[in-house]
Automatic annotation (TrEMBL), chains A, B:
The gene is marchf5l. It catalyses: S-ubiquitinyl-[E2 ubiquitin-conjugating enzyme]-L-cysteine + [acceptor protein]-L-lysine = [E2 ubiquitin-conjugating enzyme]-L-cysteine + N(6)-ubiquitinyl-[acceptor protein]-L-lysine. It is found in: Mitochondrion outer membrane. Its EC number is 2.3.2.27. CDD domains: RING_CH-C4HC3_MARCH5. This is E3 ubiquitin-protein ligase MARCHF5. It comes from Echeneis naucrates (Live sharksucker). Residues 4-73 form the RING-CH-type domain. Gene3D superfamilies: Zinc/RING finger domain, C3HC4 (zinc finger).
């Protein structure tokens, strides 16, 4: 044989068998490697490839020594298999987008439903149905889902914080006038710790607002006969009441922060227990 | 003063000012530290605490030297502030759960709607509405959302894979009989690469199935007058057709994998270009 003249003997770098061990085995030299890693049994390389690919049969695999990509040839299949392969690939690529569509559709449909329920809640059940049945369907499909969106956006306007800031600026100036030296400390981060916008709280607050407005309207404005007017009045009353309470609360939190005092460590007890024990104190403190 | 007898002079470990620099400043000894880090101005410690807490005013802060937690006292506020604080805390704790409820409600409501649309699609628009209007509302609210759930669960039963595996076992046994030595390789991970369950594909396939069943029913079983029967027949026909194609495709993929061949690296070209360049080859391969 020609190969045996070039090289002393083929041996497989996976199973270490030589040509003499199994004369019928199929040999392959799949990469640019020379010497002892040049030859490998076809069956050993297949097993090694299976191990490397771990079921992901599409991926390219290279020789770990020389980096040459193995040239793998598959038997030609018919046009039906090719067609099915293309369909399978197309479905796999399209399904994530379709899933996003399902999620968006779910959210959209819930927004439409929420909008319709809100309309019925605000103008009354029968009148709401009547209004929506007479309206343009396209207008409803566009308009109803904007109701929760507008509610959430409206909830994100934090006008109470603005008023708190205005108040603090004003009260600070007034305190400057009498000329007292000891100004209260101005807390670092403005009004209190509840300043950061909580997503879940904003969402829930916005979605429950029409129900609260309807409830407050029924409690406070019984004499108003129109459902719409009563709910709007209830909503305004609730927003104002909540705003006043929130401004008051934030201002009080601010005052609390501004007037905090850090107390002395109880000196006498400590001195009696550890007289002259400076080093002990520092040791125990560093633990 | 008693302090000046014990220690030579107070000085603040933040601003390094001594008692003589500002006789009116308030001093505090907030921790177990002795010596030069014992005393600090109240105002300096407040500034340092603000810096440490960075707006998170609730957190405890300790002395960086001895580890003693500072004892911070806030002025007593009225019962209204306490009440508002409790309400604020309760709302903050409840809002994540409420948000989860909103998400669950959204999914549930979409499932109800999907179920209703599917009923109307399967038994016909008018008859579907008639059936649902006469049914118990509680039964509808429980039954309709189970429709998409059952569809998805049904889609997760991969009976085609089972048939492919049966087929492969059968054909493997038959190939053993003739006594030929060269069995085709058995791919490592069973039938093909599309074996892993894709969430998005399962979901979309399950949700679109009633539409496909209705379409196939209308195309293949025009003579059937009942909407329900036609759609069921269409669904069965589609599942069977798809199953046969899928089994065929997976089997062909398996055969393709089993009969792959790894080719020799084009030996002669490489030899001519780099005669005796074993080391060069390995170097370039390792890049």
């Amino acid at each position: 044989m020609a190969q045996t003249e070039e090289q002393p003997e083929k041996h497989c770098w996976v199973c270490f068998a030589t040509e003499r061990d199994d004369r019928s085995a199929e040999w392959v030299s799949p990469c640019r490697c020379k010497g002892c890693t040049k030859w490998i049994h076809q069956s050993c390389l297949q097993r090694w490839l299976d191990e490397k690919q771990k079921g992901n049969n599409g991926g390219a695999v290279s020789c770990p020594q020389c980096g040459t990509e193995y040239h793998v040839v598959f038997p030609k299949m018919g046009p039906l298999v090719y067609f099915l392969q293309q369909v399978d690939r197309a479905l796999s690529q399209a399904s994530p987008f379709a899933s996003v569509g399902v999620v968006v559709g779910t959210v959209y449909w819930s927004a439409v439903t929420y909008g319709a329920v809100t309309v019925m809640q605000v103008v009354g059940h029968k009148k709401g149905l009547y209004v929506m049945e007479r309206a343009d369907p396209l207008f409803l499909l566009m308009g109803l889902p904007t109701i929760p969106v507008v509610l959430v956006l409206g909830k994100m306007i934090r006008w109470e914080d603005y008023i708190v800031r205005l108040w603090q600026r004003y009260s600070y100036r007034r305190k400057l006038l009498p000329g007292n030296r000891y100004l209260p400390r101005v807390p670092a981060d403005g009004p209190g710790s509840g300043d950061h916008l909580s997503v879940s709280r904003t969402l829930c607050g916005a979605l429950i607002f029409p129900s609260i407005a309807s409830l407050v309207g029924r409690l406070l404005f019984r004499q108003v006969s129109s459902n719409l007017q009563r709910t709007i009045l209830g909503g305004i009353a609730f927003v104002l009441m909540k705003g006043v309470l929130k401004v008051y609360f934030k201002q009080q939190q601010y005052v609390m922060q501004a007037n905090r005092q850090i107390l002395n460590y109880p000196e006498r007890n400590a001195d009696r227990q550890h007289e002259g024990g400076d080093e002990d104190m520092e040791d125990s403190g560093n633990e």
